[in-house]
Amino acid sequence: MSRVVLVTGVSRDLGARFARALATDETLDVIGVDVSPPRHDLGKVSFVRADIRNPVIGKVINSRGVETVVHMAIVANPGSGGRSSMKEINVIGTMQLLAACQKADSFRKLVVQSSVSVYGASPRDPVKFTEDMSPRVQPRTGFGKDSLEIESYVRGLGRRRPDVAVTTLRLGNLMGAGVDSQMTRYLSLPVVPRVMGFDARLQFLHPTDAVGALLAVTREDHPGTYNVGAPDIVSLSQALRLMGRPTLGLPIQLGPVVAGLLRQARLGDWSADQIAALTYGRAMDTTRFVAATGLKPRFTSRAALEEFVGVSTPGLLSPERVDQVLTGVTGLLESAGQRAGARRG
């Protein structure tokens, strides 16, 4: 009999990629769940339209004999529903899902997609956080706070169901061709507002490596909490140079102004914690995951960023734009010289 795996959040790009890749395994019966129809090809995945905030999710788990649950229905950006809707999906949805899992006799394994956001961001942070470290400044709002609450509920389930293998993956910021996130939208602005005097440390994770990490811990048992990201760090200034974006420097006291500018640009509801991440940056030590799984990321942070740059509109300071300007200026000068020579003649 095939193992039954339920994946939440399959209407989103990463969830769809993972579920589709998992379903290529003939020994697995993969069920994709989301409140809205999938926007991406799910391959051999069986899709069930269901809301994890509703107790009906328990009926799906019990009726299909679900053994493994991969929870990826995590919302990082409030979107049109606002912050209250985001919190309801992240926190209430996770509580309902875990309650249903706890009662299911067939349930034996849980994999949860968490985030680097649990570490917050402050000037007192270490160069890289290990899984055993706590944030120097606790996330107070938004996605970071939700992620901390989600992880606390996951640990509670582990205590109540010691027979279940529980794995939490703290993923770095996704970066690469086709990635649409608050970070990629920020870096793509024509002129990027940033806090003066600071150069945030950025660590990225290519979607291919994110899917690989999720597959590894779903196919095999690796209980525990793991940081997952590329091993290297890119500074914000390096990222903006690669993107060819000019910047607008603002003093740190105007951090709320930066958040307001980003909201006006329709880049999402930027919280104080997210502005702190763009000011100080943060990075994770990923050696525990590599040692446990033997899986190393194929993409460095820089390579993932370069792939994104390659499909992005060239910035005002990109070589392509500079060459266009120089060519245009040269042409104007040559035309002016020709006209001046004609008049002298």
Automatic annotation (TrEMBL):
- Cite the NAD-dependent epimerase/dehydratase domain residue spans from the record: 5-229
- Check the record and name the Pfam families matching this protein: Epimerase (PF01370)
Q: Which InterPro entries match?
A: Epimerase_deHydtase (IPR001509), Lipid_A_modif_metabolic_enz (IPR050177), NAD(P)-bd_dom_sf (IPR036291)
Coiled-coil positions: none
The superkingdom listed in its UniProt entry is Bacteria
Protein name listed in UniProt = SDR family oxidoreductase
